[in-house]
Amino acid sequence: MADLSDEDLLVLELEDTWQDRFPTKAEAIRQTLGWSTTKYHIRLNRLLDDTAAIYAKPVTVGRLRRLREARAAERGTTSAHSAS
C-alpha cells in the first residue's frame, strides 16, 4: 500500500472542512490548492478507489463513495468504480 501524498491528504481534509471556512467548494479548492475544480474532482475520484485513502479517512471516503454510487444510480449508469 502506497502512502498518500500531502496533497492527497489535503484533498480528503478539504472534503470535511470546506463548509466551515469558505462560502463555496470551488473557492475552497482554488484558495487551498490553487487547482481547478476539474483537477480536484479527478484527483478526489482517484482517491476514493485508493486503499490508502480508505485507511487514512474511512468515514470520509465511505461517505463520498456512497454519494458517487447514488449519483451514478440516479443517472442510470453503472459506475466503473462500483464493481470494485
UniProtKB/TrEMBL annotation:
InterPro entries: DUF3263. This is DUF3263 domain-containing protein.
